[in-house]
Amino acid sequence: MSTQTSSKSSRSLWRRYLDFPLIWKLAIGLVAGAVAGLAIGEPITVIAPLGDLFLRLLKMLVMPLIIVTLIAGVSSVTPAALGRIGFKAFLFYLVTSAFAITIGLALALAVAPGSGLKMPGETVEGSEPPPVSETLLNIVPDNPFKALVDGNVLAVMFAAIVAGLALTYMRGSDDDRVRELGDFLRRGVDGAVELIFLVIKGVLQYAPIGVFALIAVVMGETGVESIVPLAKLTGVVYGGIALQIAVYTGIMLLFRVGIRRFFAAAKDPMLTGFVTRSSSGTLPVSSRAAEKLGVQEGVYSFTLPLGATVNMDGTAIYVGAATVFVANISGVDLTVSQLLTVVLVGVLASIGTAGVPGAGLIMLTMTVSQTGLSMAPVALVAGIDAILDMARTSCNVTGDLVGTRIIAQTERGMLRDPDTTDAPEPPDDSGTDAHSVSTAT
């Protein structure tokens, strides 16, 4: 009898845990991890594998998620509609990135965060980013399976888009056999989407433990050392990101998007991005948020993976601020030409860097070298990069969702149950309404 009672009690506790809102579980893990890290210090790094496991679980889902949702999404829209979506996504991401890096530069020039700090004695060898031409060429994989293994997101996206387009033409074929095979393959893709979202739902139940470990390790290694110039740089980056979030809010108001509903759905990916420091790793959570916002797969299956690769508004703010920080330490007053170079290189570099932890340092290395500044001060930025990376990644994934939500609203049939009823419907120039895709929520 006691055994049955204990079993029922355990199930009840587990059920209560599952029913407890994820955002609160993540918040508790975040606060508890920060307290534990500061209280215990360096020894807390012994629990690092718990955080690494969470990152691995998320990254495990990234490629399967991109493949199945992108094939499903592309095969649900016409090629003409896909071309419009891609153009709108690139335009939105590039414009907001240019705006973001300008915010970072303006705030840093006003605060001068590196003033009074001496240049460190040793230099930093930054990772050499690939040229833009090579990045664009590598979008077309010579071996899609190798691209999958290497984690080349753009190449995998290209292969998935080609497969989705082929599936679209199969389903619309005049040949009954080809059309039936296309419908059969589409049902398999829909089943794979349901499977991936079910796995995501399970992985997120482990998220609070992973969050606790990740934050505890970062706080344990960083400590509470308060170096004024570095604190200023941190303040500039976080302040710039707050302004960028305000810009997003203004854009959504222009399109009459429900702000409260948007952030209610976006809070989970924002917090996940803050903790994991990976736009790509947050894709599963961002996809769930897009579903909650009513965005169809035909949009988010393309815009979210693309945004995780090329949309780095938070990182752009960081690059602008950190470049001024490096110039302050080097005793260099940036010219107008150098500032324009920072904006241009920062925006273009975002295309060639992946949405993974530490990618911002690659962008910073490229920008600093292009402006002719010393690389030595980058060592100081690298010391607090984890703290800055948290906020900028959260901003990145927010920008991805804002762009996705707005693009969905401008495409007929790509937004279910919109939170605004007075927004004008866009003209239907695609010929047919998009086919909706059923996914797990």
Automatic annotation (TrEMBL):
Keyword Transmembrane helix: yes
Region (Disordered): 412-441
Gene3D superfamilies linked: Sodium:dicarboxylate symporter
Annotated Acidic residues bias: 420-431
Signal sequence bounds: none
Keywords: Cell membrane, Membrane, Symport, Transmembrane, Transmembrane helix, Transport
Transmembrane segments: 21-41, 61-83, 90-112, 151-170, 191-216, 236-255, 316-336, 342-365
Primary subcellular site in the record, as a coarse category: membrane
GO molecular function list: symporter activity
Pfam families named in the record: SDF (PF00375)
Entry's localization field: Cell membrane
Residue ranges of coiled coil: none
Any single biological process term in GO: dicarboxylic acid transport
Keyword 4Fe-4S: no
Protein's recorded name: Dicarboxylate/amino acid:cation symporter
Native species: Nocardiopsis gilva YIM 90087
